[in-house]
Amino acid sequence: VKNAAKKHIDAKNPHPKWVQYQEKYKKDSPDLDFNDPAVVKEMEKNYVESYQADLCALYSPSQNLLCSGHIGIDREKMPQTNGRSAGHDTVAVRALKAGEAAGEFKPLKTIKRDAAVEAEFAEKLSKVVAETNADRVKKGKPELTDEEITKKLYELVGKEHSLKNQFEGKTQQEHKTESYDKLSDAAKNWLYENTDWNDTEVNLETPFIEWLNGVIEPENGKPSVVLKEVDPKDYAPSQQQLVASKVDGTARQIQEKAIEVAEGIRADNPGISDEDFRTKYLEEMNRQWFMQPILTANDGFIVDGHHRWGAIRVGNSSLPEELQLPLRANEIQTDIIEALTLGKIFQDAFGIKEARLGAENKWREGEIADISREEISQLLDGLTKDVGTLVDKKYAEGDFIQLGSVGLSNNPDYAARAKERQINAQRDETRKIAGDVVAKVRKRGKPLHEYTPEELKEDFGDSIKPSDMKPLFTSSNPKDMAVYKVDNVGQAIALMALGHHVTLEYSSDEAIAKKQKESLSFAKTLQEEFFKDIKKMGEDVIANNEKEWLDFKAKEEKTITGNGGDPAAHQEAIQKEFLKKFADQYKTNLCNFYDGNENVFCGNNLGIPREKMPQAGGRLAGANTRGAELGLAGEIPLKKVTHKHVDPYGVKKWDGEDRFREIMARVQLGPESAASISDEDRQFVMD
User: Fold this and answer.
1) Which terminus has fewer CB within 10 Å in the chain: N or C?
2) 145-165 burial by CB neighbour count: b if 16+ within 10 A, else e?
3) C-beta of residue 297 within 8 angstroms of C-beta of residue 334
């Protein structure tokens, strides 16, 4: 595996996973000089050391014992309620240090000894050392060294410090009074000083389940999360990657422990019945860490705990039937799509690191600040309050449920629902982005090409920036000659609506780039839907009494008054007319969108502006045109005829209205009827 990872680092042909890792590493370490060979060497070392093998890649998906039926989610996209934190500033690691979360502290390679802490834990440490040494001697191994004894002390202090998930009828806070609260400050500080925070894991399963109870309301009145004991074969994975070493290592522990427990029970209870043996066996095995409940959805998919589930399946395959283990599952009473989405929302809020199959992202170094239980409660309350918006946003990302996976292709109804949720959420998110861009440009009060570089950076960061690309045609208007790079279709639609030329900059991450390209397929529909948002924007302009609305309103009221009408009776019509003219400002030109050097919607066009295109039909340029002459002679059809005295508010009717319509009705009957019109009537119409 290490050799395979080393081969990824190839200057001429780098592996996509190595390219992606570099981008993330550099983004997370802005202060490092990546022109320094030592910095680059350290980054390469971290990549190789943290790379893992994928058990799901060993067999074809339809035949793999553990991975057939998955719904195609990369491991790093799976929600993590327990694992390593992303950095010093995360709620997860702050809660662990403050004694407000369960977890497992991991030591530095070298642990400094402390006489005061050794004295505080002398009795417990002595017992652990004696038991361990007795076991080692029994197996023909040497007794613990001083360094190993210090590590045992670290493990004792770490277990004493960490909260326990709810079990034995006690809440986490009740466990805390028996552990963390009894630790001396000296022991806590010694633990922190010798901890490798990058490797330390936080377990947030209990607060996650408590939070779910506030956001999921099952129709049948059941609790939101139900503890069950089931056959592990009844569940399928949602992720499509499993770390081989984790499954194999845990499976071996299960097999060894199962045989050890079984032999002990039979030795202590000669002639025990099969039923009593099974009861005692499960009582003892259920105390082991690998039998802690995993998280599942109520449609048979796993949310969290894939490696324990996989290890139990592999372990059972090598054990006789009476020693095979059931799976304990906290079943969330919703489907896997919603369960995964809620899990990702929770993970993002607490800052648990993505569980990458390959190299992991670097931990953010810094001082770990204190956090109170009240602050954590406020965070959870905020998540509950905003859960609808957060779920929509997560659906919009749409990159963690693979619609072509084995599990979904075998379940077309499920796949259809998943696809519908993702597409709808993507559209809503894209429209929101487009609306935000237009709002910012309107606030500036000038088109994008008149922005200074500082203004462009302030409003959009690096997500919208000038491109070196030239548009398909030349123009004297500087607006027509600027092309902007954007990150997503929402920004593209907004800039096209504002009359600018845009090109979509694709991500180097293949999965994200694929999603960007797929989003173009519904760009036209989005562009049409976007006008609903423009209308809403216009309604806000009215509601906020902005100058644009007040000026238009004053002008129209003056016209109505001049025509002898009462403006107060026409306020609704004035607003309707304003919204129409407001939306007309944002007519999106899809030919302003470029993909590379080509236009997505207009293909290899000749670059002719729309106003320069020949028109076989349309509005007449004037009364003294051949079209007007032939039209009034009844020789060619006039599709739409109107006069210049139209009052949109219907206050004042033009006194020539009836005469005009009568003449035009005769014209539209054809040449013979038109020939009978007098010169006076013809001139009246022309005027």
Assistant:
1) C
2) eeeebbebbbbbbbebbbbbb
3) yes
Question: Cα(211)–Cα(346) distance, rounded to whole angstroms?
Answer: 9
CA–CA separation, 583 vs 288, rounded Å? 65
Query: Quick one: CA torsion of 679, 683, 686, 687, rounded to 10 degrees?
Result: -170
pLDDT for position 398? 54
Closest of 649, 676, 652, 644 to residue 662, by C-alpha: 676
Q: Which residues pair with 332 in a beta bridge?
A: 225, 297
Question: Residue 60's pLDDT is what?
Answer: 43
C-alpha–C-alpha distance, residues 685 and 687, integer Å: 5
Among 287, 323, 284, 329, which residue's Cα sits nearest to residue 308?
329
Query: Beta strands 294-297 and 327-332: pairing type?
Result: parallel
**In the prediction, which pLDDT does 473 show?**
65
What is the model's pLDDT at position 138? 86
User: What is the mean pLDDT of each successive set of 10 residues along the chain, which is 687 residues long?
Assistant: 79 79 81 88 82 54 48 60 88 92 90 92 93 89 92 91 63 70 90 92 89 79 86 77 76 93 92 93 91 87 86 90 93 83 88 64 85 92 86 65 45 59 68 85 89 92 86 74 84 84 77 65 61 79 90 92 89 91 75 68 64 83 88 88 84 88 91 92 89
The residues, any chain, with a CB within 8 Å of residue 148's CB and separated by 6 or more, are: none
Contact 232, 312 (CB under 8 A): yes
For the record, the structure tokens of 4 come out as 């395979």
Write the CB contacts of 479 (distance below 8 Å, at least 6 apart in sequence): 447, 449, 499, 500
**How many other CB atoms are there within 10 angstroms of residue 589's CB atom?**
16
Q: With CA atoms as reference, report the closest residue to 604 among 489, 472, 500.
A: 472
pTM summary value = 0.55
- Is residue 618 exposed (0-12), middle (13-18) or buried (19+ Cβ within 10 Å)? exposed
Closest CA to 93 of 108, 106, 112: 106
51 with 359: CB under 8 angstroms? yes
Dist. CA 441–CA 464, nearest whole Å: 12
335: helix, strand or coil: coil
CA 40 → CA 5, 35, 47, 384, distances in Å?
15, 8, 11, 42
DSSP 58-125: SS-TTT-TTTTT---B-GGGS--SEEEBSBTTSHHHHHHHTT-SEEE--B-SSPPP-HHHHHHTHHHH
Contact (Cβ atoms closer than 8 angstroms) between residue 275 and residue 265: no
Find tokens 């009408």 and name the residue.
565
**Distance (Å) of CA 524 to CA 590, 601, 604, 675:** 8, 9, 18, 47
Checking 657-662 for CB contacts under 8 A at 24+ apart, the result is 659/684, 660/684, 660/685
Q: Is residue 565 a contact partner of residue 651, using CB atoms and an 8 Å limit?
A: yes
Helix or strand or coil: residue 171? Answer: coil
CA-to-CA distance for 353 and 80, rounded, in angstroms?
8
What is the C-alpha separation between 333 and 297, in angstroms, rounded?
6
Residue 305, phi-psi category: left (phi > 0), alpha (psi -120 to 50), beta (remainder): left
CA–CA separation, 379 vs 388, rounded Å? 15
As a residue count, the chain comes to 687
Report helix, strand or coil for 559.
helix
Number of other residues whose CB lies within 10 A of the CB of residue 415:
18
Task: Give the per-residue pLDDT at 350.
Answer: 93
Burial class of residue 221 (count of CB atoms within 10 Å of its CB; 0-12, 13-18, 19+): exposed
- C-alpha to C-alpha distance for 104 and 204, rounded to whole angstroms: 11
